[in-house]
Protein 1
Amino acid sequence: MDQISIIQPDDWHLHLRDHTALATTVPAAARGFGRGIVMPNLAPPVTTVAEASAYRDRILSYRPAGSNWEPLMVLYLTDNTSTEEIRSAANCGFIYGCKYYPAGATTNSDSGVTDLANIHAVLETMQELGMVLQLHGEVTDTDVDIFDREAVFIDRHLLGLAENFPKLKIVLEHITTRQAADFVTSATDNIAATITPQHLLYNRNHMLAGGIRPHLFCLPILKRNIHQRALLDVATSGNKKFFLGTDSAPHAQEHKESACGCAGCFSHPAAIELYAEVFEQAGALTELEAFASKNGPDFYGLPYNRSSITLRREPWQIPSAVPFNDSQIIPLAGGNSINWRLA
Ligand code: NCD
Ligand code: ZN
């Protein structure tokens, strides 16, 4: 096969940042994708419908001419989010979920929820309204090893959450472990997961063996190869519960290559091609369309995109750097040659 056409894919988890950064991130997010779930972890975070509306307008002002790419907005849950805000979010027509960050888990998550008990009424309202809860599924307890944070979150919090809110639509985001893949596989149909290109392409050896590679550092952190294998298996299985979410998360080069570097991989310059490469290596290119273009809209209750994209077998080099504000970003796999190319 030297060419494939699929329904235009969507990205169910991405970060755009704000203001002048949008000049880089919005065209990159719109490259190949029809829609994108925009994470609200700005500083300060997007916690109200009014803030989400203003942020959406700023994003749209950077959308390339002629593009129909659509930002799907998300509210950031805090200990103080009200059920009224959830109701107006569900009615506003441009908000597609609410994001739970455990306080302190990742970039700009200081205002996150300190205890799930604090948002009980909010979750009840979301369940009633059919609103999607996007979960950053890691505990932040300092006694829990960073490589175990996702598995411990499932045991300590997610099992109970799923039991207490049996109809709540939950996306366990950017899953990284066999435990998460197994949990989602055996859960009810209201629970799904997104998977990033970096967690399919790499394991922690790629990041740490023979020298530390800060551009592969993201959260949840890359795990052992057995976990990478489990993610590859579910992503390429055709199972409707798993879909594309790049978690493309730009940070300027100097903030990654630092004594205390930021977490996040910027994958948008070649995102769909990286997934195509992974699926081809797994002998499952025919499953790419379901994972990238169908399972996400089906879960969110949205129509498929009406246009399609074509990928050609045509080796090219992923840009080794992309301008970003006064600096630059090193993209995921930047400088590497890749076999598939978006036409
Ligand atoms: C994300 C970011 O930089 O905003 N970083 C990351 O490593 N994934 C935050 C997140 O999604 O955890
Ligand atoms: Zn993210």
Protein 2
Amino acid sequence: MPILEKTELFVRSIGEATDVVEKEMYTFADKGIAMRPEATASVLRAFIEHGLHVRQPVQRLYTIGPMFRHERPQKGRLRQFHQLDAEIIGAAEPRVDAELIAMGQMLLDELGLNVSLELNSLGCPVCRPPFKERLIAFLEQRAEALCDDCKRRARTNPLRVLDCKTPSCRAVVREAPSLLEVLCADCDRHFAEVQTALAELHIPFRINRFMVRGLDYYTRTTFEFLTADLGAQAAVGAGGRYDGLIEQLGGPPLSGIGFAMGLERLALLMEQRDAGAIPAKAMDVFVAALGGATLAPAGQLVHALRRQGARAAIDYSGRGLKAQLKQADRVRARFTLIVGEDEWARGEAILRDMRTQAQQPFGLHGSPEEQALRLLDAVRPAATPCPAG
Ligand code: HAM
């Protein structure tokens, strides 16, 4: 997806009265384009433009890339950040919501991050508008107690008041009517079934009726993966359903649901918990080339090994054997092929098992490809199997 899109796309999808569009978007006013503050709008724009639904009724898509929001930078809040964005388009069943949330949870589990999941439903065009009216009436009676932003929002975007962090607003909101109590029958059933499906997958969650999300396109299920380890309570990932949005953008009447994870926030958490030390994959072979004449053939051999799918490394600095063996240990090489200048002249090298330190001669005859195949035969049983097979 391109970084620049028509401003209009974001205004129509994210919503005119949201902080993202009102305050945070980098817009080229004279050109009518903006730097994307998120990925969903662009994904849907491309989806519609290329008629993806014709190829396959349900599409599971993802994209990773930089997003831009003019916010005050702080820990975990950047003006250029990266999102991993996932969307399921064309499926309205509540089990799909659970499937998508489960995928997000699986990623967080795999990264060893302890993050809590909060869930809410924002209803639909049937049940939300009457609730909004009720909420506006409620907030108008208590306007005195609201912060300046919320005094304004109470009319333009009253739901946003529900998740204002100002203590006086929070006190007001605690007494506010709850959308969950007035969901229409369809939304109520959908929300109940999402919860059942999550329970079936053993995904723990907490319902937070104050969660509204900062983007206007949401309907029904919304969710956030939250952590207390980034200063204030922060979302590492969040998303929700946006039934109706694709049609509103000029596409077919398809439902959709998605989420985005903030990669910098994930990285910060991984660093903090030291789960960040995901070890680099071990090398199958490190080639220690000793002396100028060996650099070319050693380089060719490493290239041939990589073409065979092996993980191979080499150091071209011409350092001595001791330093190169240290380097081999650092990249966790299973074997090191030592190519000395004299041995090379005789068509020989030494293959060293880095675990047992046993050494054996290895003949360097034939083409680099033949050498690579023989070398892999010699090391494969002991080397880590290549996941690609
Ligand atoms: P969002 O909640 O605005 O949702 O952002 C998703 C995630 O992006 C946040 O949870 C956070 O981790 C990260 N993020 C947002 N702003 C910043 C920032 N300034 N600095 C660092 N990280 C940040 C969306 O963007 C929706 N498009 C998600 C979605 C996809 N909904 C449906 N499909």
Protein 3
Amino acid sequence: MEPLIIYNTLTRQKEKFNPINPPFVGMYVCGPTVYSDVHLGNCRTFISFDLIYRYLLHAGYKVRYVRNITDAGHLEGDRDEGEDKFAKKAKLEQVEPMEIVQKYTVGFHEVLSLFNALPPSIEPTATGHISEQIEMTKKIIDQGYAYETNGTVYFDVEKYCKKNNYGVLSNRNLDDLLNNTRELGGQDEKRGRLDFALWIKAKPEHIMRWPSPWGWGFPGWHIECSAMSMKYLGETFDIHGGGMDLIATHHTNEVAQSVACNHKEPVKYWMHTNMLTVNGVRMSKSAGNGFLPGELFTGDHPLLERGYPPMVVRFFMLQTHYRSTLDFSNEALQASEKGFERLMNAVKLLDNLKPSEHSSFNLSDIKTKCYQAMNDDFNSPVLIAHLFDGVRLINSINDGGTVTISSADLGELKKLYHDFLFGVLGLKQESSFQNNDELATNLMNAVLAIRKEVRAKKDFTTSDLIRDELKKINIIIKDTKDGVVWEKE
Ligand code: AMP
Ligand code: ZN
């Protein structure tokens, strides 16, 4: 079997995956900022890492998967200024900031579970790790890479650059970075224009605040991921992931913080997912083109022709490699729906295939190709293409033509499809009902058919039982001249 190859943003090339301490793998993925609903773009990133997590588990690694919840420290501006996003939303909805955090964390979990994403091993929150963030900030000050001004602690990027490459992840040099950053104004407390806050002094009106050696305040955005990844995965760990939009600032600053604190690279393989776009524009909260997953499931959005089940949406996402952009369109979703159904029908057919004495094809070829695809930087679209090739074979065997399969190969083929479709791609059979109303109608039709049958046999006890049980859940059956009808009381 070929080794697993991963594209590493740090080195900008594909590399053989050599975990630090096999079979253990430490993986950290930046989680959502829970001041609003996650949109479909966010989901793409989390589904991509779910695929990666699932394949690592399938390959036999023991993965500790840490995905944080950002529930503090996000300001409106990207230069450590502006209103706190959580406090702003709390004011708007007239609730406590932690009610906002709870509401959107629950929503995030619900959505990811609809997409059949596995929960991470640890899901730490920024507010639950304030002391770790303060400790790390203190260490960075002790190493001489941060300074305090008026209760706020800044990371000293220029000083860091004397010995380290600040643009190592984004592949940009210092001059380039400086030229693209606004000059400091008279009001600025920072020494250098690239400096960023590790700890921010709380203004009098700021609700979410904690005591620190520098007075009451709250952590900057980037320090939480450095502190929590170090706590749960160590000073250097295997994989760190997130969307590509995080490279330039968030992950660049994470590397600088950790290197300043521990004098070593924090991450062996940096992995980044590309963006979900709508008509070529990145889906984002600020661009106003952010579909909520719920809108996609129901079809309740002006850009949608109809709704699509979560598994079809998951399949649609996995049909593109995680490092390519994925443009949303109704046509693409409809094509994915057809493809998904073809695959699921093939899996059902597998249970009914009649084995022959010999196989007329080489099953290990298909298997090898599936593993080759996934070992080549988790190439799910190529994997899916090979699974479709197999569907053609399955259909031919079922048609009773010249293609045959032995009993042993049939067992292996079933395992292959189950392992890859359900285990690695994380798909599951989607109910054929589009929504709950349709499901209720179909169930009631089935119940009424049974009632009709028992009445024909003059079994009025069972017929009454059916009526009484339905009444308990407020469903009334009426015999009318046009037949039996039912309604909710
Ligand atoms: P946020 O809640 O904004 O911090 O984002 C959570 C995750 O979603 C981050 O890893 C982002 O990089 C990622 N993300 C944001 N927008 C998109 C998008 N349009 N497509 C894919 N991933 C995205
Ligand atoms: Zn992060």
Protein 4
Amino acid sequence: MSKLSVNHLLGIKYITKHDIDLILDTATNFKEVINRPIKKVPSLRDLTVANLFFENSTRTRLSFELAQKRLSADVVNFSASSSSVKKGETLIDTVNNILAMKVDMVVMRHSSAGAAEFLSKKVNAKIVNAGDGAHEHPTQALLDAFSMREKLGDLKGKKIAIIGDILHSRVALSNIFCLQKLGAEVKVCGPKTLIPKYIESLGVKVETNLRKTLEWCDVANMLRIQLERQDIKFFPSIREYTMLYGLDKTLLDSLSKKIIIMHPGPINRGVEITSEVADSDQSIILNQVENGVAVRMAVMFLLAGRQ
Ligand code: CP
């Protein structure tokens, strides 16, 4: 069967292993397309997509827009900071006004968890969640899995560590769901205050010692400290966090094997990861960004029913 089991991509929680494999395999074909001299295919030339970003983004917004253009879709971009949301318009009114202009698919980032799911029940368009609060960021998890699979092959039995601010991270939750569905072992590592209490109930291992975690894993996915989502202090100082959980080249080189380093961006260089590590030959951070375009092409192509 070469169809997705869902009409919208709201979270990895709602899709199957078959869906994930289908998206990653389709993305492999699109990666070949975007590396050709002519990087475009006409697959979505009859489709209009609106990118609604109610929260800041660099990578995700550009990546979706480029993916849409590579698929020949018509694209409209909306940014909350320069829209009538500032005058008090509701989410539903904003979206319905955009849909009245005959939009077929909506890619949305919003600071509220559940915003994409709410929208999917209210409007007649395909919805892609581009990050909803601290809930899910499904296309990030898919591009992360694609990037790991490129380096390691089948992820079944591979050991993946997610390190840092797990509590405020939508990337962590989507990665946990995705990696577990692909059969990988997942461990989270960080200060206890930044690890949610429910996490072990998801079948994830917890470790507070960074060196032990790095010695265990094949891949370390280093997350940013999300200071913008922290209304209280979760650790004494950034300096102390970096001393205990920052990854530098001395620590990386002292490990008994060569591990892969990932980061979803934006990076706080010198906090969770040093420049030397981010730019090292063990880092696949820019591969993740490149693969994001192919993976998002695959998601929109399949949601549009073009398998
Ligand atoms: N990885 C990620 O979501 O980055 P942006 O916030 O820049 O989109």
